[in-house]
Amino acid sequence: MARHTARDLRSENRFEVLHALFELGPSTRQELARHTGLSQATVATLVTEFLSGGVLHIAAVERNTGGRPQERLTIAPDRGRIVGVDVAETYVDAVVHDLALDVLSHAEVALDEKENDPGYVVDGIVRAVDRALGADESERERVIGVGVSMPGHVHPDAGVSVFAPNWDWHDVHIEELLEQRLAIPVYVDNPLKAVILSEMWFGVGNVVDSMAVVNLGTGVGAGIALDGSLIRGITNNAGEWGHTLLELDGRACRCGRRGCVEAYVGAPGLRTTLAEIDPGHPTLRQPRQRDFVEAVAEGLAAGDPALSALVLRTGRYLAAGLGDLVNLLDVPHITLTGWASEALADRLVPAVRDELPHHVLPGSLPGLTVEPSQVPGNAVALGMAAFTLQRFLTRLGLASPARTRPRPDREPAGFGRRAVTVPSPGPDAV
Predict the structure, then answer these.
(1) Which of 234, 308, 334, 407 is the most buried (most CB within 10 A)?
(2) Which CATH number fits domain 206-372: 3.40.50.410, 3.60.10.10, 3.30.70.60, 3.30.420.40?
(3) Tens of pLDDT along 76-124?
(4) Is the distance from CB of 396 to CB of 154 less than 8 angstroms?
(5) Maximum distance among all alpha carbons in the chain?
(6) What is the CA radius of gyration of the chain?
(7) Regarding the domain with residue range 79-194, which homologous superfamily does it belong to in the CATH classification?
């Protein structure tokens, strides 16, 4: 287990109060204490720090007969701006949020899926951020940070893209490259960690503590939360479910193995399956992945039998992979997200539900739910904005004057439900 310092616990409490404000809306100190389970003294101290940092403001003062006036507190949205950035192999989507994580604007830039030079990707990210912020320089000056999700294995503490198989990246210092171009603090992480955080805070995490959020696009992976804690693993590489085995000696996967789940349910895998069903199908002429998936969705709506067969077969592949995930983790809820999932959910989710009982052990099947994500907007960008908010509050120094001296190899814990930990990977994390 990761060792806790007094500073870590302080951070957990701080973000538990912040999360409560997102869940409850304008709240009194007493309501925050009841919701979080923290003592009223702890909540009062943290609220004072938030107010001094301009993160909260007093929305109203309620005067009750016979008692002291109560202040109703809310997040101060105009304290700053946060840009959450979803980087995939085919696009960059930059979303500008206020401090309450409401969306203000966004911009998307297409990427050539065959281009893998880091400079090309960095340029696409910078162009998307610039477009989302617009020409108003004063708006840019209000940005407190940019959170960037990068596909593949990412080391957040070092700001490094350790391995991105589709681009053949190895140890690219992406955070440094972006900060040089943007002149704004940058935080990088993996999309699986971003989507599970979004789901924990703004989706089904409000009613369940354990879940898997399966992201379907070019790549495939699963964000995992168990008992309210986001699971990162030792090296921040937990959730690479797309690179677990579906078929021994099966299709070649871009990771170098054969038979991975991703090779069957990722967007390139859908193309391969359709070619097996109908090698001459006109949808196969679509050169770009997103155009191909959108054409599949249009063909399904028109009743194309080959595309119907494609979704049914893909549903079987996906259900088999999800069955392994459920049998391993015993999670009661699976949420599907990602651009490919969004395009095909109407047909793909029912196909998965029908097939899943054949792959899940009886003890885990009752109550098991599979559904599309209800998180609004871009869940990856939202999760990255939330992580960046965490970093911003840390830089403000909102902690007890009696805190232990920060250790340089630790990021503060945070973001979870009921004072849980979302550890950042480090040398003392196991």
Answers:
(1) 334
(2) 3.30.420.40
(3) 999 999 999 999 989 999 999 999 999 999 999 999 988 889 999 999 9
(4) no
(5) 80
(6) 22
(7) ATPase, nucleotide binding domain (3.30.420.40)
The fold for domain 6-75 equals Arc Repressor Mutant, subunit A (1.10.10)
Alpha-carbon dihedral angle through residues 154, 155, 157, 158, given to the nearest 10 degrees: -100
β 143-149/186-189 pair status: parallel
Domain map (residue ranges) of the chain: 6-75, 79-194, 206-372
Say if CB 85 and CB 146 are below 8 A apart.
yes
Q: What CA–CA distance (Å, rounded) separates 279 from 26? A: 58
CB crowding 222-232: b at 16 or more within 10 Å, else e: bbbbeebbbbb
How many whole angstroms separate alpha carbon 268 and alpha carbon 113?
11
The values of phi and psi at residue 19, to 5°, are: -60, -40
Per-residue pLDDT tens over the stretch 128-170 = 999 999 988 888 899 999 999 999 899 998 899 988 887 889 9
* Alpha carbons 290 and 218: distance in angstroms, whole number: 9
